[in-house]
Specification:
With about 220 residues, the chain is an all-beta fold. It is about 0% helix and about 55% strand.
Length: about 220
């Protein structure tokens, strides 16, 4: 079983896809399969061949759920893991489920650097972007006291630390699914919620699971 859940296009037109796999024989893999691994594959712009692929995994389940390519060609991925032994990690696993962000070499031969979020019960990194000033922003959701809350994380371009800079919580579940940015630096986050008390809401909660769009400045 293989699933491609995210993609990005590099400055030279090549296509990067990411997801998870149970397959031990992903084409052109530069490393070894572990157990339900995340993966990234680089495909030529004519979709004729897989140039290179890489597993991202450890002793337990791992998923790549977000992928971005910088203007300079740097490949960054994010996702969810149950593995305390992901390669090239520079900090400690948070326990239970944890999110992660990793920088990959341009030719997908290795993981240059990987950061765990350090957030226990984080439902993975679901979306990420590189801002104009080089910061890496990532979103996910974390369960605490019976409800999920949306979490916004930020790392420098050197990936030396990953910090929580914003959280959205209420009287129901809140999930962050996607993040975007405008030219003036505003961040836009989308998601789903069963909370009826989101701060700053301009209209009314419609009941059940409702979608939302949130604007922030950082």
């Amino acid at each position: 079983m293989d699933e491609a859940s995210t993609m990005a296009i590099s400055p030279d037109g090549r296509i990067c896809i990411g997801g998870f796999t149970w397959s031990r024989d992903i084409p052109e893999a530069s490393d070894l399969y572990h157990w339900c691994d995340g993966f990234v594959a680089l495909i030529d712009k004519d979709l004729k061949r897989i140039i290179r692929s890489i597993y991202i995994g450890g002793e337990n389940h791992d998923y790549v759920e977000a992928l971005v390519v910088s203007p300079g060609g740097k490949i960054l991925v994010g996702g969810q893991t149950e593995s305390p032994d992901l390669p090239s990690a520079v900090n400690s696993y948070g326990g239970n489920y944890d999110g992660f962000i990793a920088e990959l070499s341009a030719n997908l031969e290795k993981i240059n650097r990987l950061l765990y979020s350090g957030e226990k019960n984080l439902d993975g990194v679901s979306s990420m972007l590189i801002s104009r000033n080089g910061y890496i922003y990532a979103v996910g959701s974390q369960k605490e006291k019976g409800f999920y809350r949306g979490v916004l994380l930020r790392a420098g371009e050197d990936l030396r630390s990953l910090k929580r800079i914003y959280e959205l919580k209420g009287n129901g579940d809140i999930y962050f699914y996607s993040i975007g940015a405008s030219k003036n630096g505003a961040l836009f986050l989308t998601g789903m919620t069963s909370a009826s008390d989101l701060p700053g809401a301009l209209n009314s909660y419609q009941g059940g699971c409702d979608g939302f769009l949130l604007k922030l400045f950082y």
